[in-house]
Amino acid sequence: MTSLPQAIGSLALAALLSACAQSPQAPPAPPPQARSAPPPAPMDFSQTLPAYDWDLAAAYDARGQSMPGWRLPGRPPLRLHFQDDRLAVQNLCNAIGASYRLAGERIEVGLGAMTKRLCPEAGLMALEQRVAAQLPLAQRLVLRRGAGNAALQLALHFADGARWELVGAPTPATRYGSAGERVFLEVAPRTVPCNNPLMPRTQCLRVRELRYDDRGLRQGAGEWRVLHGGIEGFDHEAGFRQVLRVQRFPTARPGQPAPADAPDHAYVLDTVIETERVR
How far apart are CA 131 and CA 75, in angstroms? Predict the structure, then answer.
């Protein structure tokens, strides 16, 4: 026979179990949602455009069809260079200059001066005329980052529906980390042997620095010296004395040593000032 305390304890335990069975269970916690990656920061056109030279890779009409004639066989592609609100079209026979104004992704181009010399290459004059007619129709820019180490790409859209696809190449100022300085070099008509243990029988340019006043009159010249490393963009031709305007860049970035076995400065051709055949 069950005692009274045992009966009371059994009833309390049964009530507790019944309450637990009838109480609704808490719903399982939802799985944590995956956090989406933040959208990439928009590119600053005013900073990115001047940091690169933009080479034309392809041209398309309003229907997206490839347009022939914008790339000429055997010639470097048309290049756009943006700097100080000025746009220069390079790799043509004549120099084309324009102004440009940015408002977000919108761009407005005002065609400026253009030289008028005759171009011996077939099709080059026609290309220059097409470029001069197309640029004022520019309306919108789209910048795309390539995957990995792929080059930066720029799409330039025009009011007539046409589109240029351009590929960015870092300018010398971007590559060397400074604006550099403008200097004038006279290049001797003959190269000279130079000491380079990694490249025996190397020939180097012989140069001297020239000084001009504000009116463009020569004021003096430095000593002749051997230039190690050459001048980017300049092809020396034996028998010709030439005067070049170049940009000079320190090869060592601020706070960093210069690359091993590299000259202290790099030279990039700006323009050829004089050319004289020497016998």
Answer: 16
Q: What are the C-alpha distances in Å from 137 to residues 81, 140, 163?
A: 17, 10, 11
What are the start and end residues of each CATH 2.40.128.270 domain in the chain? 45-170
Q: What is the pLDDT of residues 194-211, one digit of tens each?
A: 876 666 788 999 999 999
Tell me the C-alpha distance between 250 and 258, whole Å. Answer: 8
Residue closest to 232 by CA, chosen among 221, 252, 248, 250 = 248
Evaluate whether 251 touches 265 at the Cβ level (below 8 Å).
yes
Degrees, nearest 5: CA angle 86-171-78: 65
Q: How many CB atoms lie within 10 A of CB 22?
A: 7
Q: Does domain 45-170 have CATH number 1.20.120.450?
A: no
Count of Cβ atoms closer than 10 Å to residue 222 Cβ: 13
User: Of the candidates 164, 159, 158, 177, which has an alpha carbon nearest to the alpha carbon of residue 55?
Assistant: 164
pTM confidence score: 0.72
124: enclosing H helix or E strand? helix 124-134
